Amino acid sequence: MGDSSAMDLPDLANLTVDNRYDVVRSIGEECVQEDELRALLQSGRTDLSAYDGFEPSGRMHIAQGILKAINVNKLTKCGFTFKFWVADFFAKLNNKMGGDMEKIRVVGRYFVEIWKAAGMDMTNVEMLWTSDVINAQPEKYWTLVMDIATRFNLSRVKRCCTIMGREDSDDMLASQILYPCMQAADIFFLNVDVCQLGMDQRKVNMLARDYSSLPEIKKKYKKPIILSHHMLMGLKQGQAKMSKSDPDSAIFMEDTAEDVNRKIKKAFCPPLIVKDNPCLDYIQHLVIPKYGVFDMKRPEKYGGDKVYHTFEEVVADYESDALNPGDVKDNLKRLLNEMIEPVRQHFQVDEDAKKLLAQVKQIVKSCSKK
């Protein structure tokens, strides 16, 4: 099966604005605003930039690994520089890895190593460590953070705190109130055109747009375009999204083939029903973006193989029972393992990567005991 994560597109010079718009827009479940994105691509600028931030937090699920590699490759192929904001500073604020910056850094390097092994083209990708970049220009950064903090009331900022995966704002540390203001400041500090984060980060991205709309601010900073990707469902019934605290709710990049097979076997996949079906969600948002098709293998006596070119074709067959949960799960196991296998091999064969993985496992183990 071919791999379209590297994007089988002609060179940038041969892509029309419409081609580029379609590819970039396909990344987002939501785009705020589409006309601004089209205007950006029509501008003729050669310094387009997009960003995402990530906290080094121990484990990487398959959406962070595979889906992010696909999306970054789409953007860089369309002329963007992609800036990864490796949020070691933020991880410390959020008390990840016990707030130990050295451990956070090790996990950050591990994430970068996974992306390389997962097929991310690093040619036009910048990895920026927040502590390094902020400490190089502290006055500029913290002035911006404080200005954002003075423009919005506490209630608005606390509503943004779900970006940290925290629903109970009363149980937060005082330092975590700064987090949304810092994340909004990142956008202007990095001077990016597009925020390419998940739908779970929408509130703080809209806070940034509201900030940039203030009369005295819009003269200083451009308004960011928000391109929010879909959040994969958890594998169990009723899980709107994956949870790192529930290992069986998601596929992780370090999962063995046995782990993947067990999780998919147990996954919720009701016959005939597409809505809130996590197995079909994986096909729509991982398999088809990765490979360009859903190449379904099946014994001839059960109907034989079939290649689905669109998710709509999958839906039609699933709702008519021409495609059943067993077909979906058997193929999902095969394809997810195929996606992860290059990463597994990298950490087994490359000596430096092997040592890094051992360090990360030790860090995660020690932090989980505290």
Specify the structural class: alpha/beta
| Quantity of strands, as a count | 8
Largest sheet: 6 strands, mixed
Q: Domain count, please report it.
A: 2
The helix tally amounts to 15
Q: List the secondary-structure elements in sequence, H or E.
A: HEHEHEHHEHHHHEHEHHEEHHH
Q: CATH homologous superfamily name of the largest domain?
A: HUPs
What is the CATH architecture descriptor of the largest domain? 3-Layer(aba) Sandwich
**Top-tier CATH class of the largest domain:** Alpha Beta
Radius of gyration: 21 Å
What sort of overall outline do the alpha carbons produce when their principal axes are compared? globular
Question: Strands, helices and their partners?
Answer:
Blueprint lengths: L16 H9 L4 E3 L1 H9 L6 E6 L7 H16 L3 E6 L1 H6 L7 H17 L7 E5 H7 L1 H14 L2 H6 L18 H12 L4 E2 L6 H12 L11 E4 L28 H10 L11 H14 L2 E3 L9 E3 L2 H9 L5 H25 L1 H18 L2
Parallel strand pairs: 2-3, 2-5, 3-4, 5-6
Antiparallel strand pairs: 1-6, 7-8
Helix pairs in contact: 1-2, 3-12, 5-15, 6-7, 7-9, 9-10, 11-14, 12-14, 14-15
